[in-house]
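Minutes, structural biology subgroup

Action item carried over from last meeting: produce the C-alpha cell record for Exportin-T (Rangifer tarandus platyrhynchus). EB confirmed the sequence was re-checked against the source entry. Recorded below for completeness.
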Amino acid sequence: MAIDSELVDLDVVHTSEEARRNTLIKDTMREQCIPNLVESWYQILQNYQYTNSEVTCQCLEVVGAYVSWIDLSLIANDTFINMLLGHMSIEVLREELIVYLKL
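Output recorded by EB:
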C-alpha cells in the first residue's frame, strides 16, 4: 500500500519530474517484479482464505490498489478468477471483493 500511495494515489499532487519518476518505477516493476507479486498474492489469498480473513482482506486491498496499472491478464485468468469466485461464499471476503475490486 505504501508503494501505491507514493506512485499511484491520485489524491497526491506530483510535479512533472515526480510523475516521470513514478512512471519509470511502475514500468520497471511491470517488467521485473509484478508477476512475482501477483503469484504471492495468489498464494496468500489461497492459503489464508479460511484461516486468516484479516490477512486475506489486506491482500485483496493491495490487489485492488494495483489492478488499475498492472497487466490485467495476470489477474483476469481462470486460476485467479476461480479462486476469487470461491471467496464470494465467505461473507467477509465477499464484502472486501466488492469494496476493493469493485465487483
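Discussion: Helices lie at 2-7, 16-32, 34-48, 53-66, 78-87, 91-100.
Next step: EB to file the record with the rest of the batch.
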